[in-house]
Write a structure and sequence with these properties.
The protein is an alpha+beta fold and about 250 residues long. About 20% of the residues lie in helices and about 40% in strands. The longest helix is centred in the N-terminal third of the chain and has 14 residues, at about 15-30.
Length: about 250
Amino acid sequence: MYYYLYDSRLKDKKYNNVIAKIETRLTDLGINGKINRLSFLKNINQIIAEEIKRGVKTIIIVGDDRTIGQVINLIADFNVTIGIIPIGPNNNIAKLLGLPPEEAACDTVSSRIIKKLDLGRINNYYFLTSLEIGGKNIILECDKNYIINLSEGNNIINISNLNNSYNIISDPTDSKLNIFIENIQRKIFRRNKSTLSYFKNSAVRITGDKTVPIFLSDERKIVKTPAEVTIVPKKLKVIVGKRRYF
């Protein structure tokens, strides 16, 4: 039984044509189902729980990266499979998962190539792709084993579960977080230079002498330090495409 969650922005008239094509294709494939639209006025978490009790096994997210990030945190603790039909301007997650845009994604959903993916978790918030932090006097405690002290302010820290940062694929099935630290050396009248450190860990504690914002790519959400970042292995069942990055 399929259940479709639409991003609230898809009510805009400019999406009418593409939505009609998607719904026609889903009907042709025999995988159409009940539709609900995300809204601040609805208790979506309760609605999803009730639908799962009624027998929903597959939830299809219709929207972009922001929609996916929002829904993942609603359904991560339920035993369901998710699929994605990408619509909108920001579809990096769909690209990494090998999903074509709009109507073409219906066939991928129908094919049901399912992978169990790890999720990252920062404090009590799940993320699928990555988070980024910049600033100075930041301390990373990795796997409770060693500490990295970044005292200068020209570092960019990227912690990835599923990503293509710096042309290195983060595999969301290896039970590890990819951690990138880029140090940018700024030069007057000359081209800036940068060095990159890269390693893998299962847990990272982020602290500093001041509260520092952390940017989550999935939902464009901000979390602040101190923060505990961990990997939750095989947490999410996802329908993927043949051209996925991992």
